[in-house]
Amino acid sequence: MDEERVLLDHGSGGRASQRLIREVFLRHFSNPALDAMDDAARLDPVFGALSMSTDGYTVDPVEFPGGDIGCLAVHGTVNDVSMLGAKPLYLSCAFILEEGLSLALLERVAKSMGEAARAAGVVIATGDTKVVPRGAADKIFIVSTGIGRILIDPPPSGARALAGDALLLSGEVGEHGLAILSGREKMQGFPDLRSDCASLNHMVEALIREVGDIHALRDPTRGGLATALCEIAAQSGVVCLVREEDIPVRAEVNAACSLLGLDPLYLANEGKLICVLPADKARTALEVMRAFPEGRLAARIGEIEAPGPKTRPGQTLLRTLPGGLRLLSMLEGEQLPRIC
Amino acid sequence: MDEERVLLDHGSGGRASQRLIREVFLRHFSNPALDAMDDAARLDPVFGALSMSTDGYTVDPVEFPGGDIGCLAVHGTVNDVSMLGAKPLYLSCAFILEEGLSLALLERVAKSMGEAARAAGVVIATGDTKVVPRGAADKIFIVSTGIGRILIDPPPSGARALAGDALLLSGEVGEHGLAILSGREKMQGFPDLRSDCASLNHMVEALIREVGDIHALRDPTRGGLATALCEIAAQSGVVCLVREEDIPVRAEVNAACSLLGLDPLYLANEGKLICVLPADKARTALEVMRAFPEGRLAARIGEIEAPGPKTRPGQTLLRTLPGGLRLLSMLEGEQLPRIC
Question: For site-directed labelling of B3, which of A212, A215, B187, B231 has its Cα 20 to 30 A away?
Fold first, then answer.
């Protein structure tokens, strides 16, 4: 029997679009705002400043060890909204589908999105679907946009890191990048790695509640830990100093990276955060993070320093295992395209 | 000299991404929220209920008579947010670019977006850029998401049309659809038509302020006027009755449609709205609409009726020029893929 597939008609805005929306999307995302089916969704008032973030997801393969493009589109945007010290409330999602896409695959992706949104406590309030002719897109792209309520003033920002602050990381790095690679290449003997993709909003909310004064939060996605640290150093005009021995990396990730010539510090993560805060709050923050399954390996990986005689604002330095200092720069070139 | 092109590297999240963001996007969109360059944008508090809408733009060709994908991504989403009786405030934009795209084209698109946003009075607060390998997408897709403040309670909704209400249309239909087709096909002797794409938020704000009690607003984009009327009839459980002689259509549009076997009532528009309101407010509303250049041909095109012995809830009927009644259904099949 022929598999059911997405047709151009499903993106026409006419009857077939309505059917697709009802049978696939409303089924998995149902909520009063979305079900109203107006051009825009009516959202309840949000009291206070808002956090807004958008991200496009083009990950290849669509389904990979540990997740798929659907839950990734929820986790990734929930996390970006959260990094401003905010509680994510609403998501929108726009699908760009290639004609001929398997409807069963689309249904699995929608189910995964719905589950991830419920777990994060966010409402998928509005959406859109376009279908482009075969060859004009590769299977499925999703753009999700989130808004949330900022819980603290001033909010954490990459520009607020101060000399003397501690640098915390919520867990091991590199798993998402390698999981995508293994899903794509089907390499013999590749370690059994799963993406770390997860929503961190509950952890962020607990950090704001229990610790309060957090200077910067950032999730090290594309470009990895090294690039995110460089961004913070540049935005704040400080130096990030991190110790290789304190950065949690799974042995299998290190082994695979050695084999493939990749650096785990530049691999994408989808369920980790960097937290910069006054050093005297570091212990409490680590306890809060470790109380969550996705933060159980949280560690203090370094410090923020003022630029000294041998360093410049914006630099990130790695104290290597042998004891030397290595300057980390932002990712140059593309390690792996379509990683998220 | 080789033309500068988008590279995979521009979507890596690393140094080249930062350069692209600074040199192309920040240049045309600059504002404090975006310039902060955090994972999410901090937005000032919005007092009252919110309107949120998202739309994916995949229009082919990227540049067409009367506009391009950039201004379209602003107009379309501004209009969708407005249809809930809201004042659009913030937009996000996510770009999915094909490796090899002309940087000059991207720059023109960004410039056009920035101009459209300024004209509409909305802030492009946050964005994202992904680059996929050649052949994995066709040139450029944009997803824009907007949020705004709802100006009236209850807000207009497709579900609030009442028997006895008047049906108004803000201008001539069919121009966007035909402009895209002419841009794509380069047909000999094709009339010189431009897309009607325009932001309608200032008109909506004036309508809410001057008229107040508006039952439904909808912009007849994909699927055209006929599909939008069918949606309102279905959501409200009423019958839409429209008169062909009162629906504004340019002579060139009618002529081109006859030639090509297209129906102007099913062609996409990107700068028109349907307004449903109590009949005694129709005259004032028409005056308000006609005071705007994009509403100067606004017309009362019909009425909302209760289902009668010969009609069913959800039906849309057209009183044709010869005097007969034609049942309009939602668009079946796809008239023109990638129209928006």
Answer: B187
Instruction: Give A238-269 pLDDT, tens digit per residue.
Output: 999 999 999 999 999 999 999 889 999 999 99
Could you read off the pLDDT of B290-312 as tens digits, one per residue? 999 999 999 999 999 999 999 99
Q: Assess contact for A19 and B57: CB atoms under 8 A.
A: no
pLDDT digits (tens, 9 = 90+) for A11-34: 888 889 989 999 999 999 999 999
Cα separation, B39 vs B27, in Å, equals 19
The pLDDT, as a whole number, for residue B183 is 85
What b/e sequence results for A209-233 when a residue is b if at least 16 CB atoms lie within 10 Å of its CB, and e otherwise? eebeebbbbbbbbbbbbbbbbbbbb
Say if the Cβ atoms of A330 and B50 lie within 8 Å.
no
Using alpha carbons, select from A224, A230, A335 the residue that is nearest to residue A272.
A224
Give the residue carrying structure tokens 């726009």.
Answer: A94
User: b or e along B103-138 (b: 16 or more beta carbons within 10 Å of the residue's beta carbon)?
Assistant: bebbbbbbbbbbebbebbebbbbbbbbbbbbeebbb
One-letter amino acid for residue A44 of the chain: D
Instruction: Please give the structure tokens belonging to residue A16.
Output: 């077939």
Q: Check residue A15 and give its pLDDT.
A: 87
- Tell if the CB–CB gap between B84 and A329 is shorter than 8 Å: no
What is the Cα–Cα distance from A19 to A67, expressed in whole angstroms?
27
Q: What is the pLDDT of residue A191?
A: 75
Between chain A and chain B, how many beta carbons pairs sit less than 8 Å apart?
Answer: 288
Please give the average per-residue pLDDT across B215-230, as a whole number.
96
Domains of chain A and any CATH numbers: 8-150 (3.30.1330.10), 165-328 (3.90.650.10)
| Lookup: tokens for B206 | 């004036």
Query: How many Cβ atoms sit within 10 Å of the Cβ of residue A5?
Result: 15
Q: Give yes or no for a contact between B86 and B155, defined as CB atoms under 8 angstroms apart.
A: yes
Identify whether the C-beta of residue A98 lies closer than 8 Å to the C-beta of residue A136.
yes
- Best A37, A50, A59 member to test B by mutation, with max B CBs in 10 Å, is A50
Closest CA relative to residue A86, chosen from A124, A122, A118, A127: A122
Please give the pLDDT value at position B303. 98
Chain A CB contacts of B41 under 8 Å are 51-53, 84
Question: Which residue in A10, A39, A53 has the most chain B C-beta atoms within 10 A of its own C-beta, making it the best mutation to test that interface?
Answer: A39
CB contact under 8 A, B39 and A83: yes
Q: Are strands A123-132 and A86-98 parallel, antiparallel or unpaired?
A: parallel
